[in-house]
Write a structure and sequence with these properties.
2 copies of one chain form a homodimer. Chain A has 431 residues and is mainly beta. Chain A contains 6 helices and 23 strands. In chain A, the strands form 6 sheets. In chain A, strands 4-3-12-7-8 form a 5-stranded mixed beta sheet. In chain A, strands 5, 6, 9, 10 and 11 form a 5-stranded antiparallel beta sheet that branches. A 5-stranded antiparallel beta sheet of chain A has the order 18-17-21-22-23, with no helix packed on it.
Chain lengths: 431, 431
């Protein structure tokens, strides 16, 4: 390889510009003692099942200390400590209503009945024999964002607490449409009533049209069996729709002509709109984005930084993410990685040289249907002040002259102190 | 939604054909008792870090009972128990030479020196500040396949033992080219000497051209910090090349004009060719595929099955995978999922109705450069009979009339009893 080739390859590799010249804090000097100690010790032997480094044990899901019970509530994916798009299964957010059931897969049965020609019972092994599909989808709690909004802003907010009720996995399962064809859909069937085998007997209504479109009866997550918290051994994956309809620990699907109108689609998981009306069945998740670095309670130095974040939308692919480095006056388009897949999250990145002056950064996602994240003010023109769900307003982070990052949201005149301020509890809420 | 729309959606969803009519064993009848027990018990509360179900603890890496020490050797990914493409990090194959070092990230330093203008030391935090890339790549031990070949065939072979020294992860890191530009490559530099901080002081030679092309200095795997067994906190990812050059626990990179000719690129990890010559620096991994279901020691019933497997190649994208259901006489093209990415694994699938007669199934991958997996006979026309590495011959599985699946390879006249039969030990070998 000649010199020209080297320069050619180098040039290609740094097409983004000579940003590293802006770096500071890249240590230069002598090799510290201590770094070579592992070379003097015989290491850990082969193991049948691996674990994280002892130095990574602090990367955990966030559980609000204010919960009255850990048997109903949520834990948050630590978005501000992760890279890429796939969420490690051990850190996938949780949301359950009576704890995580411990299901024996040998006893597992899925019943499909109601308006079908042939009521069927499937064992886990039966389900695995059907043609399978593997797809990467985000799952987001309808209550995500609930902690991201406080008025005046919560100055202890982190990216994790703001938007950590979202995770992305590679899901494997059998298309529900195949099982329904096997059972034979009867005239008049319009709804499916999936039921969980948790102690809450959690139950919802799912339109037949969505069930036939892209819903999975999933048994694997990121290559292995679904984790207990995510519905072991079988759950519904309902791409792009709120997590609460993606029934976990699935035991029964009844086909009916009308929805079941369960507690969790009437008193819970319904939206209060600005005109005072209540909307039920608001399943689609609006576009979202969150800057995960630099984000709340982190500390940065002057010089080069790659601003990193996540974006997603229940309406399809993320079309673009814009980032503002000056409090919303100017916006620049972020790079997206990988090329956006439908109903999956995408990582966004912007190169930035911080000059040490106080500023506010924020991100805004737009999906392929043209939906864009609203400002906080805009959010409350569509949804009522006491709504609790589907909060997807732009999250801002303020970077102080000392490099400390805190919530950059502004205090809004006449706005509620928090979502759902009318008094109802919340799936993701800390209060 | 009217009847026509339902039928239209159903038709679309089962375009693969009415294969489910061929199914047997899909239980039909009454709901068994026992399946509803979890509904009577309050479940597991929210947890900061999740674990697998107690019923999945048997899914583990395979470690040969014949190893003299677990401090040097390999453990195999249980390919026959996983779905999709991403390998759960806890089940990523292992290969190390003096155990897994326990590195404190606060003390971690990477030194870049030798033929550079500015010798540099990077902390872990420094590396994370650089522009990052996340890509899905397979990593495969050069010795993968070593257990897949025995003459006469090993009738206890599983897909895991045949090809389980391969795993696929989403890797995040900084392109090595950026760090090299930061250091300034001096005239005459042609090689990089990456060194590990394990107790073996493992060291290799990497051509500068590859380093500039696509090598990552990686610090994250599947979203979180790299696992200890895969190089925590920092490793090289050298896409498509044998795992042994993707130096883990990376502490030092020296730029030189010549390779270092270390033990692991001279006495080990070199190939004996059919003409008796030894080839060093044979880094590229040949195309591979393995049917993971049905595979060795599994048991199947008559009726519909989705044959599933994995394919990959170090030369770029997998172009096609063909599957034979009749011992190699006829081949049909498998469906690939997802659309193949360069230097990543891909899942392949073929719908099959087994009529209960004994048969032999096998798969064959071809990559975008036109390389195809050889038969066992063809393999030994290129490589010598005592070669140990890069065995990528077609793996066959025999399905008996009783549904039991065993190794379907044939006994070869005049062929060696096993790879490396001349007596050298093996990275993946059980003997």
């Amino acid at each position: 390889m000649n010199r020209r080739k080297i320069l050619q390859l180098l040039g290609k590799s740094v097409a983004a510009g000579a940003f590293f010249k802006l770096s500071t804090g890249l240590a230069q000097g002598k090799i510290p003692q201590g770094a070579t100690e592992p070379m003097k010790t015989l290491g850990i032997p082969l193991r049948e099942y691996g674990e994280r480094s002892e130095f990574e044990q602090k990367v955990i899901r966030y559980i609000s200390p204010n919960l009255r019970s850990r048997h109903t509530g949520a834990s948050f994916t630590p978005l501000d400590q992760l890279e890429g798009v796939i969420t490690p299964s051990s850190l996938h957010f949780e949301r359950h209503h009576s704890g995580v059931p411990n299901v024996n897969p040998a006893e597992y049965r899925l019943v499909v009945h109601g308006l079908v020609s042939r009521p069927l019972i499937f064992t886990l092994q039966d389900l695995k024999r059907f043609p399978s599909i593997t797809r990467t989808y985000f799952i987001e709690c309808a209550g995500n964002g609930q902690n991201g909004y406080r008025n005046p802003p919560d100055m202890t907010l982190t990216a994790t607490r703001s938007r950590g009720l979202v995770s992305t996995s590679s899901w494997t399962g059998v298309p529900l449409s195949i099982l329904l064809k096997e059972a034979g859909i009867k005239e008049g069937a319009r709804w499916l009533i999936p039921e969980s085998q948790d102690a809450a007997a959690y139950i919802r209504s799912l339109p037949l049209e969505k069930a036939l479109e892209d819903v999975l009866v999933a048994y694997a997550q990121n290559g292995e069996a679904i984790r207990p918290e995510q519905g072991y051994p079988v759950r519904l994956v309902v791409p792009g729709w709120e997590g609460s309809i993606q029934v976990k620990w699935l035991r029964r699907i009844e086909l009916t002509d009308t929805p079941v109108m369960s507690k969790d689609e009437t008193s819970e998981y319904t939206d209060v709109m600005a005109d005072g009306k209540i909307w039920a069945f608001t399943w689609l998740m609006e576009p979202q984005s969150i800057i995960t670095y630099p984000s709340g309670l982190q500390q940065i130095e002057r010089g080069f930084h790659e601003i990193r974040g996540l974006a997603w939308s229940g309406f399809g692919r993320v079309r673009r993410v814009e980032v503002s480095l000056d409090g919303g006056r100017n916006w620049k388009r972020a790079a997206l990685e990988p090329a956006p897949d439908p109903l999956s999250a995408v990582r966004f990145k912007v190169n930035w040289a911080w000059d040490g002056r106080e500023t506010v950064i924020m991100s805004r996602a737009t999906d392929e249907k043209g939906n864009t994240q609203p400002t906080q003010e805009e959010f409350f023109t569509r949804w009522a002040r006491n709504n609790r769900y589907h909060y997807n307003a732009i999250q801002a982070w303020r970077i102080g002259a000392d490099g400390r990052v805190v919530n950059g949201d502004r205090t809004l005149a006449g706005a509620p102190a928090q979502l759902g301020a009318a008094g109802r509890g919340g799936c993701g809420g800390e209060s």
